[in-house]
From TrEMBL:
Gene3D superfamilies per UniProt: Tumor Necrosis Factor Receptor, subunit A, domain 2 (2.10.50.10)
Name of the protein this chain belongs to: Tumor necrosis factor receptor superfamily member 5 isoform X3
Region (Disordered): 182-201
Residue spans of the TNFR-Cys repeats: 64-106
Gene Ontology BP annotations: apoptotic process; immune response; negative regulation of apoptotic process; signal transduction
Signal sequence, renumbered to the chain: 1-25
Biological classification of the source: Eukaryota, Metazoa, Chordata, Craniata, Vertebrata
Domain of life of the source: Eukaryota
């Protein structure tokens, strides 16, 4: 009998020690009340602020936020309201004007977009034609480069060919491929022509002609 009484007492003590502080801490409704001077005061509703904290047998006194200020929830702001947001940055405008119960919402003017979800800044919208213009302007520069390179190569080739041709023609003149008539006239032509069997066709023909002329 004694042991059961003791257990009951102990359980009551344990319960009270755990439950009593919980009851005290949850005595104020966090949504609509706040603890002031060990009393639960009523919070002020959105659009208002606390002018006077509640006292014994007198409720909280609230006042409406002034122009340019707002409260968007039940609050215990004492003698102040938060500032409304201003949308005065470059290319920025109001999506929603500020009211006593809601903050202003910013957006960007046409042709601009917000840089983040909070619209802290506006940036110019890059139109679809701009990137395509960039991509189309790059290939022509490559084309021009390749065209100029190939032109240079062509010029160099032409120069090389010209110099080769000049050198060949000079050498040909020295060996008498082009002007065979002058040595033929000075010497007895028939013997020379027969000796040089490696001489190309035109010279042989010329030699033949001179021989015929001499014979006639
Ligand atoms: C905000 O208020 C101004 C006048 O103060 C008005 O011209 C404008 O249209 C309003 N903007 C919005 C988004 O309600």
């Amino acid at each position: 009998m004694l042991s059961s009484k003791m257990l009951a007492l102990l359980s009551v003590l344990l319960l009270s020690s755990h439950v009593l502080p919980l009851v005290q801490s949850t005595s104020c409704d966090d949504k609509t009340e706040y603890l002031y001077d060990q009393t639960c005061c009523k919070k002020c509703k959105p659009g208002e602020y606390v002018l006077e904290n509640c006292k014994y047998q007198s409720a909280t006194q609230c006042a409406t936020c002034g122009n340019g200020f707002f409260t968007n929830d039940y609050n215990s702001y004492f003698n102040w309201c938060p500032d409304c947001r201003t949308c005065t940055k470059d290319h920025m405008t109001y999506k929603k004007n500020c009211t006593t119960t809601s903050n202003a919402v910013c957006t960007c003017v046409e042709g601009y977009r917000c840089t983040d979800s909070d619209c802290q800044a506006c940036e110019k919208i890059q139109t679809a034609t701009v990137p395509s213009a960039i991509t189309t302007t790059i290939p022509p520069t490559h084309d021009i480069m390749w065209i100029s390179v190939s032109l240079c190569c062509a010029c160099v080739c032409v120069c090389v060919l010209l110099t080769c041709f000049l050198l060949i023609s000079r050498n040909a003149r020295q060996y008498g491929w082009i002007m065979p008539a002058s040595p033929d006239k000075s010497n007895s032509g028939s013997s020379q022509c027969t000796e040089e069997e490696e001489v190309p066709m035109p010279v042989q023909e010329m030699c033949g002609k001179t021989e015929k002329l001499e014979d006639v």
